[in-house]
Amino acid sequence: MRSRRLLVARMSVEVELEKGQVTKYRRHENGRGLVSPGAQVNPSAYVSSATYVESDAQVGPESWIGQGSWIDHGAIIGARVFVGANVHVGADAIVGNEARLASNTDIGRGAFIADGAVIDHEIAVPEFTDVSARPTTRARTVPPGGLSAASGPDRAGWRRTWGARRTPSPRLPVPPVLVTVS
């Protein structure tokens, strides 16, 4: 009689950062994306397998994060948000409920994307910029020159169950250098 072997997928991955610091990420149950122990990701959210969610980040219910995306430290992703492939959401940025971020976009550090806003492919939203949706329609596509910059950490007055606006983190993004599976 043959013996059965149960293959168990590895539930954690160790990543060595530039300065030799090792961080252990866990795999999210829905999509197998890499989630830092300090991050909060709703179980109903989908996090693709080649995606990183860094510490202090929050991902809301029913959100979808595509392949190769990076949710940086302290970023907040609201409920039912679509994040395409190869998207970087900068540190301390806030993406409102039902927003849509197309593939290959870069959301700057501390940026605010309003509820229902739609960001086109390959758009770079500058740091500390507010992007708002028109109140008369459900969502608005933001063209390359259609962003309005506003300074100050409380410019949007954003308050939701996901937390209040935070001051920007002093941490700088550090890409992983070496990945070892444990």
From TrEMBL:
It holds the Pfam family Hexapep. Residues 136-182 are annotated as: Disordered. Residues 159-169 have a biased composition (Low complexity). InterPro entries: Hexapep (IPR001451), Trimer_LpxA-like_sf (IPR011004). This is Transferase. It comes from Cryobacterium sandaracinum.
